[in-house]
Design a protein that fits this description.
- It is a single chain.
- The radius of gyration is 29 Å and the shape is elongated.
- Among the domains are: 85 residues, Orthogonal Bundle (434 Repressor (Amino-terminal Domain)), CATH 1.10.260; 59 residues, no CATH class.
- A hairpin with a 2-residue loop joins strand 2 and strand 3.
- It contains 16 helices and four strands.
- By secondary structure, the protein is an alpha+beta fold.
Length: 358
């Protein structure tokens, strides 16, 4: 008999399991049971696990040797097949909701041609055995993503966001990180501003990761797959913090402000997942405002606010002001634009632009 490789029906209870239990209680020999249902003894295992259906003839034989009625066995078989179909439909729907093409392209999991292979790879990626287990971890009240259900498009984005967060966890697990210390991290942050003046990500990201790791923070850069609108996320798990960035906007002002904004969440509100949307949807305006203020004041201390507002909008003055604060000129431009002091289309040549290396 050819066995299906698309889906395993082990998550639905086959009627053969009931047959096995009743036969054991009656001390029924395998040969006698096989004869009653018209099967070779070697094929009974396929009846037990649901690969062989309970036909009308088999139901009659079961009723005679293990008990219950023909109607019971046929109803049990029909219910099982409905359960298996529902599971197959649910699995297919879940697999189709994942950004599988990008996940494979970015090397998060193996490429696959069939739905069954995709299902297996996706379950392995999330380290779960069923789609229901995935939902329990990522979408239940115990999971951080529930805080974002107020988003009208959350349902459509949930699988992509979960995939991005999961890859962040896997990337963080590869880093050697100390135990999370909020005080250590808060003291470290001002010294990180000098890294904003380093042009190449290949040079400053390893330094950023190494220095943050001493305070128990795993900094990971994970490209957002299709359907994931996240620009950053933070959470504390198992005694260490994860600060995850998608670098959706490949500019130094956006990268560094997002980093210090996420750092603000870790310092000010470490108790749950914080997830930032690239379109700046504020799911908790009070905490987002606090993180924005924190980031702005780390980059440009309040004592320099007056000087920033009085700064001539000329690139030499901006570069001098940035150097004195040990930050990149692009950050100064971004902050001037954020305050409405400079138009969004002005002075952008001072912002450094990054690119993804495929």
């Amino acid at each position: 008999m050819t066995r299906s490789t698309e889906f395993s029906p082990a998550w639905a209870s086959p009627p053969g399991e009931t047959v096995r239990q009743l036969a054991a209680k009656k001390n029924l020999r395998s040969d006698d049971l096989a004869r009653a249902v018209g099967l070779p003894p070697g094929d009974l295992s396929q009846l037990f696990n649901g690969e062989l259906p309970i036909t009308a003839a088999r139901a009659k034989g079961l009723a005679g040797v293990v008990g219950a009625s023909v109607r019971f066995w046929l109803a049990r078989e029909a219910q099982y097949r409905r359960d298996v179909q529902a599971l197959q439909d649910d699995n297919r729907q879940w697999v189709s909701s994942l950004p599988f093409a990008d996940m494979a392209r970015y090397g998060w999991l193996k490429t696959a041609s069939s739905t069954g292979e995709r299902l297996r790879h996706a379950l392995e990626f999330f380290e779960v055995s069923t789609v229901d287990e995935w939902r329990d971890i990522w979408l239940s009240d115990r999971a951080g993503l529930t805080a974002y259900r107020t988003s009208p498009v959350f349902t459509a984005q949930a699988a992509s966001v979960a995939a991005w967060l999961r890859q962040g966890e896997l990337a963080a697990a590869e880093l050697s990180v100390s135990t999370w210390s909020r005080d250590c991290f808060e003291r470290l942050l001002p010294s990180l501003k000098a890294l904003t003046r380093v042009r190449e990500p290949a040079e400053f990201i390893p330094q950023l990761q190494e220095r943050c790791a001493t305070c128990g923070v795993a900094v990971v850069i994970v490209r957002a797959p299709k359907g994931c609108p996240a620009s950053g996320a933070t959470r504390v798990k198992n005694g260490r913090a994860i600060l995850q960035l998608s670098v959706r906007y490949l500019r130094d002002d956006s990268f560094w402000f997002t980093f210090f904004h996420e750092a603000g969440h870790l310092v000010l509100h470490e108790d749950r997942l914080f997830l930032e949307w690239y379109d700046r949807r504020e799911l908790d305006s009070h905490e987002e405002a606090e993180a924005n203020k924190f980031a702005g004041q780390v980059l440009i201390p309040p004592s320099e606010e007056e000087a920033l507002r009085a700064l001539p909008h000329e690139y030499r003055n901006i570069m001098r002001f940035a150097k004195n604060l040990s930050i990149s000129p692009g950050i100064v431009v971004g902050q001037l634009q954020h305050r409405g002091l400079v138009r969004q289309d002005k002075l952008n040549f001072l912002k450094k632009r990054y690119s993804w290396s495929e």
